[in-house]
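Contributing new records

If you add data, match the layout below exactly. Sequence lines come first and carry their own label; structure lines follow with theirs. Keep one chain per record. Anything else will be rejected by the validation script.
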Amino acid sequence: MAHRIYVGLGSNLGDRKANVREAEARLAELPDTRIVKASSLYESEPHGNAKTWFINSVLEVETELEPEELLKRALAIEKAMGRKRVSGKRWGSRIIDIDLLLVDNQTINKKQLKIPHPEMHKRRFVLLPLAELAPHVTHPHLGMSVSEVLGGLKDPKRVTLTRP
């Protein structure tokens, strides 16, 4: 059965736009997987310990892979692109970050995978590109569309559309 999965991408090290595009291309090469749509690129103010601004986007992906398998392969792409995860350190700089945001209309609560992404409804850098692709998709826990969640967002961090 094909899954419709929304995937968030972000980078704030090196050639940030190229890193996001490379991650998108690598995801598109996965078996039984295709990119349906890609959002514009957005530049966003960093959270936590990161110092440089991020480039973010969201992909709408159709795949026969199960969500856990897609996550496993996404983490392998991060590693292959040079991402080094540091245990206990969140919101730091990274060459690439790939997050599964929504899977169909499912809720998944496993140690390695939580869907919807537990922080997505608090983050303008996720909601803006997601609303570009899927404004009417409903957040399974909040019962609100992505546009409605974005409209009520209190995130003070700046996010701007970038030039291609």
